[in-house]
Amino acid sequence: MDEKRKFTSEMVDDYSEKLLIGLTPEENKMVLDEFENIDKNFRVFEKIEGLSEVEPMSWCLDRTIDDLREDEVEESIPIEELLKNSDRTTDREIEVPKVVE
Fold first, then answer.
1. b/e map of 87-101 (b: 16 or more CB within 10 Å)?
2. pTM to 2 decimals?
3. Could you read off the pLDDT of 86-97 as tens digits, one per residue?
4. CB-based contacts of 6, cutoff 8 Å, min separation 6
5. Mean pLDDT, residues 62-75
């Protein structure tokens, strides 16, 4: 990214305020460092010869061969039997520990 388009500390602060997340000075520096890493990675792409002639893909896999099986109706396991495997349940739901604070 040229210097005219480089992210600044003020830009990061402005965007964080608009997103209502606010950042500490340390977090602001971390974001700027990440943008610098992203910028370095994009500069690598600029060095690849003939890249502009490559047609972008809309799917990462070859979609010309579809070996899909036919749908077959199968008997489902009763929910009560499945819930027997859990230590903690509420009605028809399994209780899990909170992982995000």
1. eeeeeeeeeeeeeee
2. 0.46
3. 989 988 899 988
4. 39
5. 79
